[in-house]
Design a protein that fits this description.
CATH topology of the largest domain: Alpha-Beta Plaits
CATH class of the largest domain: Alpha Beta
Shape: globular
Strand content: 5-15%
Helix content: 40-55%
Structural class: alpha+beta
Low-confidence stretches: 127-137
Number of domains: 3
Order of helices and strands: HHHHHHHHHEHHEEHEEEHE
Distance between the termini: 45 Å
Number of helices: 13
Length: about 280
Amino acid sequence: MNTFENSFTIFISALEYIEENLMSEFSQEDIAAHCYCSLSSLQKTWKFCTHLSLKEYIQKRRVTLAGRDILRTDMNMLDIAMKYGYNSHEVFTRAFTKVWGVPPTKFKKEWKGSTDLYPKLNTKYIEKEELINMRNVKKFDVSEFYDYLKGQAGTYILCFDIKNLMPINTEIGRDAGDKVILESFRRINEAADENMLCLRMGGDEFVMITETDDSEKVAAIAERVMSQNGNTIPHNGQEIDVTLWCGAIMIGKNLKYTVLCSDFEAVMKKARESGKFELMQ
């Protein structure tokens, strides 16, 4: 087995282990043992593939799922904390606030809409995008919504792309980038109608499934989001601009994931070049 195949095997095995045990207690050493590799090899491979540490990924996934439970269930906060491996309300609150920007109780009162801020990673993205540098597959795994998408043929998906996220990550820091991602997701959710599902598709890319074939309504939603372009968020004494490009594509009758991703890329390329909302039939 060559180095690439070995690294990819380690990554896939680690990802599957983490996702299957998010509601259990485990250590990084447990993951390495499951992958039949050293802890240092696991950590280096994971960081190379995801640009996140193992601890960061596990925490972001757990509090993403916890956010869903907070909004969709009547569970109390301590039970949710224990469900995702946090031994105290205080530790859970710190971890949750670091990702969502507010403590769980405030999140329950104020957050509107979808909670999939950090979905499960898409292994096809890691294989093709990160390690072979291809661009036809998105970073996050939205396969659980695929049947739902197929039922929305003839309606529009709104596509969003954050402007300058990479320079923010590299020049200011990934903590700043995370704040920009959160603010972008908040704006998109706030603009969506109650029945509209919002998903994160890539590092700086989101979609809103509108369930409508009304192009004027879709354009009005896009305007609600884009009207906030240029508004800033504070970070360590400076103000960071948050701007989103936006386009819309119609879901075809014979939906294929790779075609959907290609259409997403095409309409976002037009939006980035024009600087305004673009619609593609």
